[in-house]
């Protein structure tokens, strides 16, 4: 997890973390998420690696759970490949993300 701590007068005042990691923490705590991005598919897919890491999954674990190769998942995470609808649904199911069902 990549967290930035903002200090004031020598005391930690705020913790800043990537949106996908925040969403994963909300899900882990049983809280409703607030996915309000204008383009949830593109935004979430752009944060796929952070979301996967926030949930403690390796590239290999997620790829096998979705039914694709780790190499192909790496290409999706890097933005070099756009997954088809079936893979988006699989990623959404395994990661607990909504809004990936339709293309953008």
Can you offer a commentary on this structure?
The chain is mostly helical. The protein is built from 6 helices and 2 strands. It has a two-stranded antiparallel ribbon. Helix 1 runs parallel beside helix 3 and helix 4 crosses helix 5. The longest helix is centred in the C-terminal third of the chain and has 11 residues. The radius of gyration is 15 Å and the shape is elongated. About 6% of the residues have low confidence.
List keywords for this structure.
104 residues; two-stranded antiparallel ribbon; 2 strands; elongated; Helix-turn-helix transcriptional regulator; Cro/C1-type_HTH; Lambda_DNA-bd_dom_sf
Number of beta strands: 2
Continuous helix count: 6
Structural class: mainly alpha
Largest sheet: 2 strands, antiparallel
Percent range of helical residues: 40-55%
Percentage of residues in DSSP E strands: 5-15%
Instruction: Tell me, briefly, the overall form.
Output: elongated
Poorly predicted tracts of residues: 36-41
One letter per element, helices H and strands E, the order comes to EEHHHHHH
**Radius of gyration, in angstroms, nearest whole number:** 15 Å
Gap between N and C termini: 28 Å
Pfam families: HTH_31
Protein name: Helix-turn-helix transcriptional regulator
InterPro entries: Cro/C1-type_HTH (IPR001387), Lambda_DNA-bd_dom_sf (IPR010982)
